[in-house]
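Team,

Forwarding the record for the chain on the shared tracking sheet. I've put the sequence and predicted structure together so nobody has to dig through attachments.
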Amino acid sequence: MANIAQATFVGANIVIQCDGRWDCCQREQAAAKVKAMNQRLPGKGVQGRLSNAVKKAKKALCASITGKFQRASNQKKAAYADRAGAPKCLSDKIANGEDPEVQMDHPLDTKLGGPAGPPDITMLTPLETPVNGAFGSFAKNLGKKMKKGTDIESISLVCPADKKCKSSNNAGPKRKFPDSPAAQANVTTYNFSALG
């Protein structure tokens, strides 16, 4: 497994490969994100350039909720994570005092057909920063490569087995990261460590 998260599109399907550095809980968060995305497909189809107003409103709302979340007690953070539909492992990490860096995420990225306006606060779910950053990067970069208006059929997560984790955390219909030359031409990567 690569030490970077990767994603590619094949037709109208997006396949994401886990980052080899994600811990078991981060893999669970990625799987939950993929399941939430698939429940909302096809959405409004791949979007073109997002307006500055939409980008600004989304950024402001997510930053505001993330800030409130970070200032809360660990007990309140864990309770919010549970209510917002985050995997139990994340609320357990928080309750146990690990206090991972999280960002608020909406279930289906706007670029891939989610709500064009700012997401409702009730739709925001905490994800650890490496996972949220990877999915945001994939939505942005694959959204640029895919034809505007394309209805995404499915999103899959491929995580090779890891002895430390209870399951592979695969999600969606695909179980293998595509290695064909055509698919590889559409690969986008996210390397969290390169960001500092």
